[in-house]
Design a protein that fits this description.
Helix content of chain A: over 70%
Domain HTH gntR-type (chains A, B): 6-73
Oligomer: homodimer
CATH class of the largest domain in chain A: Mainly Alpha
Number of helices of chain A: 9
Largest sheet of chain A: 3 strands, antiparallel
Number of domains of chain A: 2
Mean pLDDT of chain A: 90
Largest interface: A-B, 22 and 22 residues
Protein name (chains A, B): DNA-binding GntR family transcriptional regulator
Strand content of chain A: under 5%
Strand order of the largest sheet of chain A: 1-3-2
Radius of gyration of chain A: 18 Å
CATH topology of the largest domain in chain A: Four Helix Bundle (Hemerythrin (Met), subunit A)
CATH architecture of the largest domain in chain A: Up-down Bundle
Keywords (chains A, B): DNA-binding, Transcription, Transcription regulation
InterPro entries (chains A, B): AsnC-type_HTH_dom (IPR000485), GntR_C (IPR011711), TF_FadR/GntR_C (IPR008920), Tscrpt_reg_HTH_GntR (IPR000524), WH-like_DNA-bd_sf (IPR036388), WH_DNA-bd_sf (IPR036390)
Number of strands of chain A: 3
Structural class of chain A: mainly alpha
CATH superfamily of the largest domain in chain A: GntR ligand-binding domain-like
Distance between the termini of chain A: 44 Å
Order of helices and strands of chain A: HEHHEEHHHHHH
Low-confidence stretches of chain A: 1-5
GO molecular function (chains A, B): DNA binding
Chain lengths: 218, 218
Amino acid sequence: MKLISEVKKNAVYDYLYSAIRKGEIKAGDTLTERDLAERLGVSRTPIREAIRKLEEQGVVIHEPHKGAKVITLSAEKAAELYEVRELLEGLAVRKLAQIHTAEMMEELTGYIERAEKKALAKEIEKLSDINSAFHLALARLSGNIYLEVIMNMLQTQINLLMTTSLSYSGRPLENIEEHKKILEAIKLGDGDFAESVAKYHVRQAKIHAMKKIAEGGM
Amino acid sequence: MKLISEVKKNAVYDYLYSAIRKGEIKAGDTLTERDLAERLGVSRTPIREAIRKLEEQGVVIHEPHKGAKVITLSAEKAAELYEVRELLEGLAVRKLAQIHTAEMMEELTGYIERAEKKALAKEIEKLSDINSAFHLALARLSGNIYLEVIMNMLQTQINLLMTTSLSYSGRPLENIEEHKKILEAIKLGDGDFAESVAKYHVRQAKIHAMKKIAEGGM
DNA sequence: ATCTACAAGATGGTATACCATTTAGGAACT
DNA sequence: AGTTCCTAAATGGTATACCATCTTGTAGAT
């Protein structure tokens, strides 16, 4: 039985991460414990824990006695991000091609269906969340726990990038089509092929993101 | 000016991680905050932070109201670990082949020299630490910040594996020879070749580790 | 004998106060 | 005017107490 009021530690984390994604807290801003505690009406303890978690995920960097600064995602960092993600997503999909079951495919298809609805409804923030969930699911279902943990971190960063820098602008339909192609490749059961399709997808996403960053004001 | 007494949070983390590596705290054991606080003579606060960090690194898993349990590294987990590491170390070395400078090579060579000394002196625990530092340096020098963060986590896990399961038993000399080959490949500047040498090294380490796990009592 | 319910202990989460360290700004001196 | 030193404020770290929740064992009922 899940209660409404989650533990504050998580609530604070969610609030801060969301505020950063929405741009209410900008890159370079510093989070100070006492400040936030007062503003959110809680003690420093849950704030500390939330900031630790943000640090863990690479969202802020803590400089002693200067506060935790929200990272700035430069074009270089974005390139590094996608570089690693290409490898890992390739591996996840390769493994999935070898071990996939009907239930797995059903779950994955579910994300795509929901994504299509959100895309049509232009609910871009929710679309972004669903796409995140899709990629995380690929990692989780691959059965490699490390892939899952790492992809979670990378996805957190990518969401940050998408929202703060790219203002959610995506290529929603092409993106979804590529996701479908990944699922088809998994169904074929050919690890090499599935891996190459997944890598292609990540490269496309990277190209798009880099172009946006180059245009937009970073 | 660095003082002797580091912050307790880190001291507690170091103590716990070390105790786990030494087997004083075994896989499956639970860490409870009050318990440790009393035994180490500090308050729960630094204990909490240390446990969080252990959790972050995947060393313990926190189950609500049951304490933080030290993970059990099964053969499957070890295989997953090396699977991911092969990809990432391959990427790191590929990049290094393209961007390496004299200073970088000097640093890397330094690790190998120190490793040889420790190997000859049979100081196996210190050897293990130096090898960790070598691999972490590869990731760091590659210039991809994500590689560095991720490799740090993987290395933490591998150290755990080496000590708890493999009792430091290694193939120290072969290992060092392979490290030398990696450096030579980097110097040649051929990314593809360097990557393949690095991947080969990780696969060898994996084979050795898996064999040991199969023999030894896990 | 088994099941239920409840109470006590264990565990985690939060609030608060205090201490340590660092930073930053200004006063005093040259 | 520039430099040095010192102090106050900011920030982080730690200790402690209290509260909420969950687990577990046991007493009582059936």
